[in-house]
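Thread: Modeling a multi-component assembly for a lab meeting

Hi all, long-time lurker, first post. My supervisor asked me to bring a structural picture of a complex we are working on to next week's group meeting, and I have zero experience with this. I have the sequence lines for every component (467 residues in total). Could someone generate the structure of the whole assembly? Inputs are pasted exactly as I received them:
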Amino acid sequence: MKTVSLKLRIWRQAGPSSPGAFQDFDTGPLAAAMSFLEMLDGVNERLILAGQEPIAFDHDCREGICGTCGAVVDGQAHGRQAGTTLCQLSLRHFAAGSTVVVEPFRARAFPLIKDLVVDRSAFDAIIAEGGYVSVSSSAAPEANTLPVPPDRAEEALDAAQCIGCGACVAACPNASAMLFVGAKVSHLALLPQGDPERRRRVVAMVRQMDAQGFGPCGNEGLCERACPKGISIRHIARMNRELWRAAFLARD
Amino acid sequence: MTLLQILLGSSIGRKAVVAASGAVLALFLALHLAGSLVTFLGAATFNAYHAGLHSLGPLLALLELALAGALVAHAVFAAWLWVDSLAARPCRYAVPAALRGRLSSGTMPFTGLLILVFLVVHLADFRFAASPSPLAAQVVAALQVPPRAAFYLLAVAALTVHVSHGFWSLFQTLGLSHPGYSALIRQASLAGALGTGGLFMLIPILILASRSFLR
Ligand code: SF4
Ligand code: FES
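Re: Modeling a multi-component assembly
Sure thing. I ran the full set together rather than chain by chain. Output:
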């Protein structure tokens, strides 16, 4: 069985206003097939047995679909393996004996709660402004009565892959949330179910995005390279287009 | 939200002001390049072109005013966005980012500032200089001084880098990009910036290197 041992430098911070610092850990030999979060579980078990405070980190599904996990590993959100979330990162991608630095996502709009856990409810506030469609829930129409051209459906599904993890914000030099909001606006603007509310939606979501303290987009494209779901910045261009559409055709 | 509320009140609107004014400035840059290339036709033709330009009178003044407006809007809104972006990440990362953008995108505020300083020098040299000699002689007099020529070259290099990101970026911001042609815009942006920068650079280089150019 292939094993790796790593030197971890992990950000520890007891609470939002306490001072933080890196703490070093030697993992000892671990199976290379282990996931990054399993490794953290192991470190935490040792900490608990030693009567110390375990490292706080967010996780839920552990299969790359819920968007709960996330940290900046060696200078990259979700680690340097492309197209995966932190929970999908496995130890085989690390050189044995290397030092691995783990930091929380850093953004004014994502205040730190503890250790590697940040508060991403700013995303929820944006979704609450329009990341939904209003439908009457009584008799559901037959699905095929709504014509959707296949390329439009594909494009909407590409945007819908966003899991709201926040890596785009973490990777952006300006801590901008444009990729996330672009994905949500695009997803719904492309489909007939989202069409009736599209003007109101883009204006309200962009306004909330700014109010939450995310930075402006610099078109650098680092977000799409950090995104575990490969969301393209063309969705940002579409959101911009949606905003101009709403501004020039404003009725509501 | 009205259009004005969007332009001033949202980050995307502020970006659009930078993009639209940048488009005006890019258009001017292309015209300026065409004018500068007249230097290759000799001092007499260049001076005649300069006189022709000034015979436009009030029309020229109007164009200059519009240009100044675009420049002020571009600089003020870009500075505003820069301040906003610095505030959005109060706490930096300990490890330098593993993902890096192109050289051009991360340096926009700095290349922009250098261009602004250059503009002051450049306008003082040729636009507001109270010199009785014809423009060709003024250009030669200013650019045959090596430190000044070096500063011009540096500024044009900054302009090249700035435009190579800015031109592509404006399509993205105004929502005009599209998978069908955004790769083309990116390439055209780079090629256009390199071509423009290279041609502008030729002028001080030739003035320094050749005894007959523009004399
Ligand atoms: S766009 Fe990508 S990086 Fe950003 S929240 Fe969605 S999935 Fe995460
Ligand atoms: S824990 Fe669900 S995506 Fe990582």
